[in-house]
């Protein structure tokens, strides 16, 4: 499996990575879906935009997104 790190991917690859990962997660296309927004995360394109833009790694975004749902 190829690395998903920003340093190892192009912007186009990151767009594809995000789309393919989300498609596999719930089985529907993100277009017209508000599932993540309903969970309080916002629209999916805005959630993963920092990864696509090369600002934050996927693991950082996932950790921030799941933190409110973790109970300690």
Tell me about this structure.
By secondary structure, the chain is an all-alpha fold. It has one domain. Helices cover 51% and strands 0% of the residues. It contains 5 helices and no strands. It has helices at residues 11-26, 35-38, 44-47, 49-52, 58-66. The radius of gyration is 12 Å and the shape is globular.
Order of helices and strands: HHHHH
Main beta sheet: strand number and arrangement?
A: none
Tell me the total number of β-strands: 0
Based on secondary structure, the structural category is mainly alpha
- Overall radius of gyration: 12 Å
Number of helices: 5
Judging from the principal axes of the Cα atoms, what is the shape? globular
Comma- or semicolon-separated keywords:
72 residues, globular, mainly alpha, 5 helices
Can you lay out the helices and strands and say which pair or pack?
Elements: H1 11-26, H2 35-38, H3 44-47, H4 49-52, H5 58-66
Offer a quick outline of the entry.
The chain is mainly alpha-helical. Helix content is 51%, strand content 0%. The chain has helices spanning 11-26, 35-38, 44-47, 49-52, 58-66.
